[in-house]
Amino acid sequence: MRREVSEGGLSRRSFLKGAAVGMLGGVATVGFGRQVADDLEVGRVTLKLPGWPLPAYRVALLADFHAIDEARVQRACAAVRLAAETKPDLVVIAGDFTSRATPWALELLRRSLEDLPRGVPCVGVLGNHDYASGDPRAVAETVASAGVRLLRNEVTEIGPVAVAGVDDMLYGYGDWACAAAHSGSVPLLAVVHEPDAVVGAPTNVALQLSGHSHGGQICLPFGYPLRLPPGARRFWRGFHPEATRPLYVTRGVGTTGLDLRLWCPPEVSILTLIAK
Question: Phi and psi dihedrals of 139, rounded to 5?
């Protein structure tokens, strides 16, 4: 029987079979990616910091909720509850609360934060998506009304530590001057959305806490990212004691673009800070 062949030498049947396999593979990949996006991990890490003067101090680090739809809100709510269960000394939210500032999106954001632990201090900073949301002031007001102390180039003392919240370095007005000017006797933590900002961190910063990268979000097996955003191309996940100042980058909770993750599950980072 004669076989019909395309100009490139591929039979119509082979082409259709290949297309079907490709479509099935794509559907399977999307399904797997959605499953990974919902597979929230609690990363418990002990960070040994040079000169740390306190007994073990526990920080729950969250970031990148991108609370714009029901799926992302459910993940954010789960992350907040998991963080509360660990009984941290401090909750830090390192920006990108949302990507939109419509009334509906702001209501979703409010829901995302309603289970923050009572009696535990919570601080945060804005990220690039908060600024690009259309109304960063409304985002800031929603976050503050939920009990998050939003820091914008300012330092606050919280019990045995001080926290410098540096504004977004890409779309905001980030400036390390607030941290550099701090001369208190308690250790200074810095919260900055973009991890690569650590190159400008002053020497009095004991630890920088960041998000932004999503850990790459779409990664090859073994976690190598296919793409990284500006501001997270040197440091994109985990602990970096070798950076200008010690740095921890969480993989974050939500997603941008396609609502999926590959080989890079979302993370609630529970960090225990001790002396090296």
Answer: -60, -45
Task: Report which of 109, 100, 94 is spatially closest to residue 166, judged by C-alpha positions.
Answer: 94
Number of domains in the chain: 1
Which residues on neighbouring strands pair with residue 188, listed in sequence order?
A: 162, 205
Q: How far apart are CA 191 and CA 247, in angstroms?
A: 10
- The predicted-structure confidence for 143-202, as pLDDT tens digits, reads as follows 999 999 999 999 999 999 999 999 999 999 999 999 999 998 999 999 999 999 999 999
Tokens of 121: 């201090």
Domain assignment of residue 82, yes or no: yes
Query: Longest C-alpha distance within the chain, in Å?
Result: 87
CATH number, domain with residue 104:
3.60.21.10
Please count the other Cβ atoms lying within 10 Å of the Cβ belonging to residue 23: 10
C-alpha torsion sign, points 64, 67, 72, 77: positive
- Residue 138 in tokens: 């409304």
- The whole domain housing 54 covers 39-275
Residue 52 placed within a domain: yes
- 146's CB contacts (< 8 A; 6+ apart) are 110, 113, 114, 116
Say which DSSP state 53 is in: -
pLDDT category, 30, cuts 50, 70, 90?
low
Whether this model's pTM surpasses 0.85: yes
Which tokens belong to 199?
Answer: 């190159």
Q: What is the distance between the alpha carbons of residues 43 and 60, in angstroms, rounded to a whole number?
A: 10
Q: Which two tokens stand for residue 216?
A: 């790459």
Q: What pLDDT does 7 receive?
A: 41
Q: Residue 66 falls within a domain, yes or no?
A: yes
Residue 44 CA to residue 152 CA, distance in Å, equals 28
Distance of CA 142 to the CA centre of its chain: 19
Task: Establish how many alpha carbons lie within 13 A of residue 96's alpha carbon, considering only the half-sphere containing its beta carbon.
Answer: 26
Please report whether residue 61 resides in a domain.
Answer: yes
